Amino acid sequence: MDFKKVYTSTKTYIILLIAALALLLFTASTAYKQIIRMQESADVVAQTLHVYNAIGSLTEHYTRADSEEFRDELLEDEYLSHALKKFKTEGVAVLDTLKTLTLENDSQQARLQPLESLFNKMNNQLHVLDTLNIANDQVFFETKEAQKNKIDKTIADIRLLKNQLLANEKYLMQEREANYASYKFMAPVTSLVLAFLALFICVLSFLRVYKNKLRLKQSEAFLRNILATTDNIINYFEPVFDENDNVIDFTVIYANDCNRDYLDLDPEEITGKLASETFPFFMTDGVFKELLEAYHEQTKVNYEKEVVVDGKKVWFNCLATPLTEGVLLTARNTTLEKESHTAQLVFKKRLEKQNLELLDSRAFLSNIFKSIMHIVLHFKSIRDEAGKIIDFEILFVNERISPVTGDIPQEIKNKKISKVFPEMVEAGIFDKWVEAVENERSVQYEVPYHTNDEMRWFSATAIKLGDGVTVTARDITEEKEKSDDLIKLNETLTIQNSILSDAESLAKIGSFVWDMDTHVTELSDNFYSMLGYEPRAFPSTELKYREFIHPDDMELYEKRLADILNNIETTEHTYRIVTKQGEIKHFKTNGQFVTKNMKTVMIGVVQDVTESIEAEVRLVKSNLRLKQSNAELESFNRVASHDLQEPLRKIQLFISRIEDREGDQFSEKGRFYFGKVTNAVSRMQSLIINLLAYSRIDSSKTDFEKIDLNDILCKAEDDLATRIKDTDAELITNKLPKIKGVVFQMEQLFTNLISNALKYKSLDQRPKLEIKYKKVSASKLPDGFVALRKRYHKITFKDNGIGFDTEHAEKIFEVFQRLHQKTEYSGNGIGLAICKKIVENHNGFICAKGLTGEGATFIVYLPA
User: Fold this and answer.
1) Does the domain spanning 697-863 belong to CATH 3.30.300.20?
2) Could you report the per-residue pLDDT of 572-614, keeping only the tens digit for each?
3) Which keywords does this Swiss-Prot/TrEMBL entry list (predicted)?
4) pTM greater than 0.90 (yes/no)
5) Which among 293, 660, 680, 766 is most buried, taking Cβ atoms within 10 Å?
6) Architecture category of domain 372-489 in CATH
């Protein structure tokens, strides 16, 4: 068996092992380089010491020329003295030594050039002193002193250069000693750290290998469980060769329990036998040829096969998959699908009748709108990225609007309210429509409308419908004119005073004015009430207000107060207070600084936000409980998936056996009821499978890989080949892109969308599905979707089927939501919900649009 897809890839720990070996080599090379650097540093320090010694010899040399004994020795000899020759030779040797030791030091070499000149000058001056011979003692003495002064000056210049040489070598000595100390410390530390790191990676690699070994065992057990519990026949065959290496038969190597359920063949008995003996129809019905093709061509072969078991025809959808040594044959029982195809013809006629009735209903509704005197409009909400309603689109308006506004319904349809009726936005009517949609309740209002220099009044009611609003307006101009005289009495001032007095109480808000110079504050009546006092119960000051601050919040309150006083700038902040009755409340304060009577005062408001904060705490607790419930539900889903399906398989098995053995004895009504049971079990099994598929789409899945959607489309077409052929459907596609995603989820997405188009095909024309692709910018995406990329792949699935009403465009993606009865079309309302979850798992967006009787379009946006 090929378990390549079951266990985890070994690339990770192979890379870790290579990294460990590379790190060991790096450790050895680093240690070697550190030792070499230490040796080089030691050699440099030794060289500096040699330079020190040479400079010392230089000092000793010119110091000798500065001594009186050496000078007198030169004067005593009439000819060039032996001491002077020896002195010159020693000087040349010292300079040559210094030149050799400082060859790599350009600055020292530059100093040695003038030093050599000074030495030659000093030697010449000593030579003159050595050859000095004057008869006059007084002249001889003066000449000798003058020559000695010249020699002293030259020696002073030499000493200056010598000091510069020595200072430079001292600096180099300090720098080289520091480098030597650094290399001496870092060499063992670096080697030790890198060695431990390499050891850690080796241990980590071992643990990874061991963990993958355990995972492989678990995967093998998991695969055995799948093979034992699947509803498909799964057999593995290996070829039998003749003397000429030609395949003449196949041997059954593995067979699962479904052979017993569907074909009455014991898996243990047929294992090891020839396929021609166990499945004789292989040789007569072309199955052997299909297996040969899969084996020789090393490609998957999909075909349909009809088998007669106990006198009953059973249909199978077979897939022959080549493996390393043989062929894996997977057969799915499609008998119910074949039978359902026959039932579809009956449903088709019934649907035609219902379509005619629907057309009659539409005509009746159209006549009602024409006969009533009310203006009826329906708008669709237009939202921004934050979900806020910013406009409405006109979807319907009856003909009663023409005498009022002069607009023709068909001309203003699908236009925005802000363009057609801008006065409604300015008059605040737009806000009432938004209120009706957001609060899900009807809103009644009166609105004036100016036309032909005449004002007309309308009484309107706005009611939410879907994500939009339906408005019904009635002309009440005459009623309004009769009641105006009764309304225009002193209501304006009374209403305003009432609103101002009750506003703070209703909103739980108090206001204050704080004199920054005297620290005296003026509190509103409701502020006193919020503190548990009657209005004006105590003189209000900033110091008095501190008594109400909760002790635990006092430090934060004082800090915020200090910031306000220092910066003369207010910020919104929340703290707790303790009322007179001991009740703890949360206050949120904000204000601003103004100048009043040449004084700086702060005016602001305080709001009691206790309920909202407590609601947030309850919300957090509720979210925690919800996460726990989801975890428990997921655990239950894993356990129940097998327990729910096992009884259904047993029911199907026994139904099949009862029907085969005793079906002829059933009455006509008994066979009818028996068919009902069979269909109910099939629907239940399909529902469980789809629910499991929906729940197993993991939104946290991150192991995406690069996949070619053209290959995904081909796989989906192969899986649906029979249905495409039966419906004579035409698929028109262009080249699709490569994306990063999960292969099996993309296969399920394409399969569901294509299957959906085939299921809801038109009754009077050949099914046609166009799959188009283009790359678009994020700005082209529908409103309400938060784009994470600049570019997106847009894949459009457009069919010519029965379509649907646009108002159901969002409803069809919800779980268990169906637009048709189960007797009309098969399914359980989960397929499109799975599509939506898959697209969202890939950080994409899916939407639908369509018209009844004109086909449907599903648009998928995936990150580019």
Assistant:
1) no
2) 888 999 998 989 999 988 888 887 777 788 888 888 888 888 8
3) Kinase, Membrane, Phosphoprotein, Transferase, Transmembrane, Transmembrane helix
4) no
5) 293
6) 2-Layer Sandwich (3.30)
